[in-house]
Amino acid sequence: MKRALKLLLIVTVFVTVNQRTENIGNTQDLTITIEKGAKKESNSTRKPVFSGKRPSVDVAILLDTSNSMDGLIDQAKSQLWNIVQEFSKAKRKGKTPLFRVSVFEYGNSGLPAREGYIRQVVQLTDDLDKVSETLFSLSTNGGDEYCGAVIHEAVKRLDWSNEPNAYKAIFIAGNEPFTQGSIDYRSACKKAIGAGIVVNTIHCGDYRQGVKGKWKEGADLAEGEYLNIDQDKTVVHIKCPQDKVIIELNTELNKTYLWYGSKSTREAYATNQAVQDSNASSFGGLSSRAATKSGALYRNVGRDLVDTYDENKESILELKDADLPEEMHNLSADERLKKIKAMSKRRAEIKSKMAMVAKERQAYIDAEKAKLAKESGATTLGDAVSAAVQKQLKESGFDLKK
């Protein structure tokens, strides 16, 4: 089957969440094998440059929250921002994509049986703090894992981008047979690729057992990658000499956000940003999160005045005082814009410094990872997903900056 014009990445991630806060810092490494799925399109059939104002990248994360995958959810939490950074490298015709993420949970006996133990936790959103909040709020509870059903629901329910050359992705991984449930995984995967959705499957366990359980066939049917991991390996977090500076700059960056909406809404946005900084820090990933916040993918249009002003200046002038930060009440239109422009300039200065230090940090990490790879040969979940993402973004016509 030829790759459809719209490329969607669906990776099946069966994840079990550990809700015990005393264990939140325990992370696990994952040994991964990547095998090619169906034959990819040649350069002659590569998609043309996008036709919209901005290229689109949509990613849905499907997490198994039954009782068998506690280590994997910690890996997903700890490397969320590393994975996001891979997407931040992508550009099409010089433009950074509009990046949205959705989260589903399934396989949890606390979910309604009549709905296949599936729940859409968050719709496709560019609010990455909301995505992080969702991951850290999930809990586990036995159940039946229906891969075909959750893939089917993700394809059907989500408002996937209509951009002709969008890259769309769902992450789904686990260790139970891919064949369970009333919806045939083959029909679900064929429906996915028919809509331009690539399915990348992640089997947690023995490689051959995953093949036997039809994880590889699921990837092949939807022209994706079959990923094999050992979720019992321990993650090694690399401490960098640049971390202290990046974290200090992150504190300054947070001060530049001018949240708007009702008072409770503004407070919720500010609080959640701080909470997700803390969540990332608990896994040793605050520097990675901060580095992501310095780039174009971390955006808060519709929530923050500075980001919204860059997209729609007129909408700012239409806001009522009650929906503005208190320090902006009773300002004239000119005074309001002057305040926003000043904060925008300040944010740009901080982001520029963060980006420069983050680049130095990444070079340090790459060198350290090369050493660790020679010693252990282990690959983490984030590294495996990143490899698949890099390959498929290129195949779908994105340029990846070095």
TrEMBL record:
Pfam families: VWA (PF00092)
Domain VWFA: 58-206
Domain of life: Bacteria
Protein known as: VWFA domain-containing protein
